[in-house]
Design brief:
304 residues; Serine Threonine Protein Phosphatase 5, Tetratricopeptide repeat; mainly alpha
Length: 304
Amino acid sequence: MASQQRFMGLGKSPAYDSALAYFEEERYSDAIPLFEMALQECNEPTVQKLARAYLAESYAKLGYKRVNQGDWARAYAYFTAATDYAPQYADWWFQAGYAAYKQGRFEDAQRALQQATQVNPSFARAWFLTGLNQYASGAREQGLNTLQQWAVQLGVLPEAFTTAVNLHNESRFAQAQQAFEQMLQSVQDNYAEYIHWGDEAYQRGDLQTAEACFRHVLNARPNYADVRNRLGVVLTAQGRDEEAIDQFITAIRINPRYVEAHINLAIAYLELGYTEQAKAHYQQVLEYDPDNRVAREALQRLAA
């Protein structure tokens, strides 16, 4: 989900304006080259920030489409492109890792999953897939240990996990791997669908539906930092800044280096007049990302 500053770049770059129109029409392949053109032609900080955010989201949208089609090579390419522009999204690293795993590219999968778990150390799906990737690559005992460590947090049924372990103990490794993958897929499909619905509802301005979708996910996965941030954006759009602040703070507790959540929290603090708190979070952004223009420009305005 792109930033809550959604339309602030309009009127500053013709390429950006056209790209955003294509994005709203879900013509992501048409939007991408225009967002890239906007990055090259317009140095205005808001356009730079939003063009990068929408580029990342456009690539991710295409990636999810390819996942649904089972086109793993292009899914991997799209999600890695998305992370080039927005490396703070753990789910996109996860999707890149899953697409690489499905192609048998275990080293590429491992690299992507390491990024996912660095961004969000509590990301159970990414850790479970890490174990599955280890298992599939031949490091079965290591993989089994990782799978066991994260099965409960993922919400895997104990009976299903025991069945897969029994297959492993019987040296039926391919069947055990298939069983572990099915556990991951059953959890992944359900919540990814709700996140997708929530994103779509937000884009069309149906904020109550978006809120309901994100809360549904968080009821089962309270440590999902990306969804906490999404919910905070939706609450801010409804003028519920204090509730939004709670969500952004929780997202940052889960993932202290979550730059977008820090920025969104600073914006919400400013809406309520808490200037010093906003400054602190903009400064923290610059500690993690010294070239972040949004934080730097905001601090300059606040110091004026």
